[in-house]
Write a structure and sequence with these properties.
With 672 residues, the protein is of the alpha+beta class. It contains twelve helices and 41 strands.
């Protein structure tokens, strides 16, 4: 087959698999396949089914909507899922063999993933509700008073946080746990009534209780900056009643899972020893709230997939630990040096045993009822995403179940990254170089240093479309995991806490210098790009060096002082600095690129989304305005109706336009 150089519009041909759920008996896998619909500038996703015996997958839902979040009934006969076929996501149920889907919920509010009760008669879910509580989906309150009708869009803001990127203004809304019968003939009932956020519901083995993550989402006064937005594990009778808090408000606590005997709950969390730079661990608490503790305190790697890519959005699929049938172990993902793998954790001594290997990222998993099989979603530098079956009886054996992008990947030329490492301030740092395919160029290419967001994530061994596109256009891509990244131990991650632009700056600069020394990258034609925290770093770099000839900062931070009050979670800078900006303005400004804007000489493209509540448009505007006043070469590209996730889940044509713009900008300045 003829192979062509990758183009931005090839993005539309990718088939994405956000998750795969294995059946209770381990003989079938239901996975979500998401596709681009460019003619309508949107996405569709459907549920697909395959037999683990190796037969070809087939769709069990169809239509012009998003179907996602599948959950098998305990007996394997039905699948509950979320669907937008009637508007906002609601819970639907379909026979596992396919057929007509039945709508289970019809309520106003943002409905989250369905969770079956052990007997298969009820489904729990999370719903975001306002002060009016649960209302039917179709009914609208008709306001007869013109005053009320034309002022109902006015918002009172009395809480913190009061907005959330990708959601909008949340005001006095709370996420609550609701339960509906599988017949769906009556309105669901709200289980948790307290003015708290309740998420991640999970049933006890006997169905008598639900556990969940809970937190007070609204802060009236911050008395301890190290305890911002603390979460706890709670429990309540499935018939309703009083919520019992089981943990000690030490830090994040989420994704709970009951042990087989119902006496303990495993969960993911940490005690904020290093604030938001603390690695997530496996914790356990008994159902009486006695002795919550970190089972894996000695293990110096984070639990969960910490990788960052641009095909599937981050944190799309919440995954709880899975207990072994005998209660001795739990299964979970572990991130290490750019890889993420499934591991088995001994709940008595915290020993961690990797069950998968290789230079790849396992980003989602589910397990059969007897824990003998697991369905894993993975990516590697040559595989955008696919599903494999992991056999766990006596020995581990893998079987690839899907190859959804086979035709596309055989028609385009891709590059395979070259790993290298380098010393920086007496620390070893991982890096990669993605050189153009041989048919494009292999000698003296320009190079672009890409810097990831977070900063507490990691680049890794997965397919990255933006990088491949730059390589296809004759530009080498250099990327690394500087200090602040996850996957390299607690000390490595916390090294930049409250000190952005110091050790991390040294690391990324050494990354590009070490890459140039390896040859075939022209030191006179270097660019730099990054988003979110990576955008901050681009802005910072331009105020501290003239090494780069061109730059792109995306969804960036430029002024820590203004960011504190304008970002949805900007006030969490208190964790880093200990005091608000009006008390220590010099500290905030010292760590702000805007303070060094008069040193910037490099041509800069700033890309920002107008609905971004994480790094608001005002961050780019003030840097852009300053550079214009200074007479520098700067362009601001604004995307309306997009938020912080533009590059991963924005409107299809906006994503392609962004990619084409990145290539054109660097081609203009570097391919000379």
């Amino acid at each position: 087959m003829f192979q062509h150089h990758l183009k931005a519009v090839d993005l539309f041909d990718f088939r994405l698999i956000p998750e795969a759920q294995i059946s209770p008996d381990g003989n079938r896998v239901c996975f979500v396949q998401k596709i681009f619909i460019p003619e309508q500038n949107k996405y569709r996703s459907h549920l697909w089914m395959l037999a683990t015996s190796g037969k070809r997958p087939y769709p069990i839902t169809e239509g012009d909507q998003l179907d996602f979040a599948p959950a098998w009934s305990p007996d394997g006969s039905q699948i509950a899922f979320l669907s937008t076929r009637s508007g906002l996501p609601q819970i639907w149920v379909i026979p596992a063999t396919g057929g007509k889907a039945r709508k289970l919920t019809q309520v106003k509010g943002i409905v989250d993933r369905p969770v079956w009760s052990p007997d298969g008669h009820r489904i729990a879910f999370t719903i975001l509700l306002g002060e009016k509580g649960l209302e039917p989906e179709e009914e609208e309150n008709i306001v007869s008073s013109p005053r009320m009708h034309f002022t109902k869009d006015v918002r009172w803001v009395t809480t913190l946080p009061f907005k959330l990127n990708g959601v909008g203004f949340i005001g006095d809304k709370f996420r609550r746990i609701a339960i509906t019968s599988i017949e769906g003939k009556t309105m669901p009932y709200i289980l948790t009534q307290d003015n708290m956020d309740f998420t991640d519901p999970t049933w006890s083995p006997n169905g008598n209780y639900l556990a969940f993550s809970m937190r007070n989402p609204f802060i009236t006064k911050i008395t301890d900056p190290t305890r911002i937005l603390v979460e706890d594990i709670g429990i309540i009778s499935s018939e309703g009643g009083v919520v019992r808090k089981l943990t000690q408000s030490l830090g994040p606590a989420f994704h709970p899972a009951f042990s087989p005997d119902g006496k303990h709950i495993a969960y993911i969390g940490h005690a904020q020893q290093c604030g938001r730079y603390t690695q997530p661990s496996i914790w356990v608490v008994n159902t009486e709230g006695v002795n919550p503790h970190d089972v894996t305190a000695h293990f110096d790697r984070p639990f969960g997939d910490m990788s960052i890519g641009d095909l599937i959005g981050q944190d799309e699929i919440p995954i709880a630990p899975v207990w072994s049938r005998d209660g001795r172990f739990v299964f979970y993902l572990v991130s290490d040096s750019g890889m993420a793998h499934l591991a088995r954790i001994n709940m008595k001594n915290g020993q961690v045993e990797a069950l998968t290997q290789g230079k790849r990222v396992i980003y989602s998993f589910s397990m059969s009822q007897d824990r003998s099989r697991a369905a894993l979603c993975y990516s590697d530098p040559a595989t955008p995403n696919d599903v494999i079956l992991l056999e766990l009886n006596n020995f581990t054996r893998e079987v690839r179940l899907t190859d959804v992008n086979k035709e596309l990947m055989s028609s385009v030329m891709i590059a395979i990254p070259e790993y290298y490492n380098f010393r920086s301030d007496n620390v070893t740092v991982d890096g990669w170089i993605l050189r153009p395919p041989e048919t494009v160029s292999t000698v003296n290419t320009p190079g672009v240093l890409e810097i990831h967001g977070g900063p507490t994530v990691m680049y890794g061994y997965l397919f990255f479309f933006e990088f491949q596109l730059l390589a296809a256009n004759g530009i080498s891509v250099v990327y690394s995991n500087p200090r602040g990244s996850m996957g390299y131990g607690q000390e490595f991650t916390a090294a930049i806490r409250g000190d952005w632009g110091n050790k991390d700056f040294l690391d990324v600069m050494n990354a590009i210098k070490a890459a140039v020394k390896r040859g075939d990258i022209d030191p006179a034609r270097l660019g730099v790009a990054g988003g979110s925290y990576g955008g901050f770093m681009v802005n910072w770099i331009l105020g501290h060096t003239d090494l780069f000839k061109s730059a792109i900062s995306m969804r960036s931070i430029t002024n820590k002082y203004s960011y504190f009050g304008t970002s949805d979670f900007g006030f969490t800078e208190l964790e880093d600095f200990g005091e608000p900006p009006w008390r220590i303005p010099d500290v905030y400004l010292k760590h702000s690129p805007i303070s060094f804007v008069d040193r910037v000489k490099t041509p800069l493209l700033m890309i920002q989304s107008e609905n971004d509540l994480r790094t608001p448009m005002s961050e780019a505007e003030q840097f852009y305005t300053a550079l214009k006043v200074l007479g520098q070469n700067v362009v601001l590209l604004r995307y309306p109706n997009e938020n912080h996730e533009l590059s991963r889940s924005g409107k299809p044509w906006h994503r392609v336009h962004r990619l084409e713009t990145i290539v054109k900008w660097f081609s203009k300045h570097l391919l000379k």
